Amino acid sequence: MGSSFRRRAVHAGVALSLVALACGPKADDAAPPQTGQNPPQQVPQQQYPQQQYPQPQAYPPQQPYPPQQQPYPPQQPRPSQPTPQPPQQAQRPLLPPLIGTAAMQNEVRSILAELLAALGQSNQARVRGIPLVFDPALEVNAYAGCDERGAPFLAGTEGLLEAVDALAQTKATDEIFGTRTYDAYTNAVVPELAKSDKGRAALPPGIIPQELGPDARRWSRARELFDEIIAFTFGHELGHHYLGHTGCANGQPMGPGPSFTQLGQLATALVPGVNQPNEIAADTAGAQNALDAGLVRRPSYRWSERGGFLLLDFFARLERGSAMNPFNPAGIFLRSHPNPGVRLPLVQLVAQNWYAQHPGVQ
Ligand SMILES: [Zn+2]
After folding, report:
1. Which of 36, 105, 270, 308 gets the highest tally of CB atoms within 10 A of its CB?
2. 108 belongs to a structural domain
3. 208 CA from centroid of ligand 1 (Å)
């Protein structure tokens, strides 16, 4: 079962894993775009050179860890933002490590609940109780779709969890210790992911220096980043549903979501492709949703636009890695899916507008 499922799922998954991040295979194709769901006007018009993607490294956490812990990273004020003082009365707790598939799946469920709670009433009514299912496929993918009964669901792959875990762990390590483990990680896995559908996004052994592995601050920071990336990812997917892109989320009672077998069949039917206006709308809504949900988490770590930056930077690297391999079957999709070079500045713009509406938030 596993192998045939994998093979079939790859059809859509490679494409999405390489480019469309979290673009619902089915979401964008299952229903025609709804009128009135067109993209915001602030779509960047220019192409951005790939070498100039913003590197999401300048956002300090809002509150220090307890005094006995060494604070990190070095405080760097956000240049374009006002400089209000963060709340000093509370300190961010040191979070326990997030290890293993079951723990990560639970974390995603919890984050999805926070995203839902932060939606406006009408959008929330459309997607309340939406089932989240996990797809054992190794491609890096998340998607919004409709099951065989026409009921909406959200899905994330095992490959997505592996990739987000690796991004979070490497970025946390680099922030705290000044290492370059994220570069080492992407240098190791991107060629594998571009070369073969057997490639895995999991963090390879040896990328994190052995002596740094057990550091509690590293694990805690990694969990914060994992949550932040997942918030952007599923904020985007949830957006596809309540924005009407899938056409099946209308506030009806929710089912349990597709079974594993059904999920395989749904994956088989996926047609690679993307609806650019819907993607832009989902990015916009998803980034706002993650920012809104993040705000109410204070004094714990507040999710920012950084989750989107981290994920899209990873996809940009995958795209560049794939483009260098002309035999990569995913190459065809690179021309038909949103370019991370467009999505990154869009997320930046959404965040700028959000901060303008939330003076005092840093
Ligand atoms: Zn999408």
Report:
1. 308
2. yes
3. 31
